[in-house]
Amino acid sequence: MFGGKPIIRNMRISVELILGLLAQGVSEDALREDYPELEPEDIRACLAYAYTVIAHDSLAAVEVAGA
After folding, report:
1. Of 29, 48, 55, 63, which is most buried with the most CB atoms under 10 A?
2. How many CB atoms lie within 10 A of CB 1?
3. Quick check: helix, strand or coil at residue 54?
């Protein structure tokens, strides 16, 4: 956790940041240009996390393809 927020793998990049940028229309390609350590699976994992939160589901039930 990064200040109590979930982060991507062992990076100091919060899931909230990535979801916020995606919501603003930033493309996955642009995200990966700005954060070269991000992999496509990391972005999909952020989306899967958001889905589980709004669906009140368990993270154990979510599988990210390619991970």
Report:
1. 48
2. 7
3. helix
pLDDT per residue over 9-39, tens digit each?
A: 889 999 999 999 999 999 999 999 999 999 9
- Residue at 42 is within a domain: yes
Domain extent for 33:
15-61
Per the CB < 8 A criterion, the answer to whether 54 and 63 are in contact is no
What number of CA atoms fall less than 13 Å from residue 17's CA on the CB side?
Answer: 15
- Three-class secondary structure of residue 46 per DSSP: helix
Q: What's the total number of domains in the chain?
A: 1
- Tell the burial category of 48 from Cβ atoms under 10 Å away from its Cβ (0-12, 13-18, 19+): buried
User: Using CA atoms, how far apart are residues 16 and 49, in angstroms rounded to an integer?
Assistant: 10
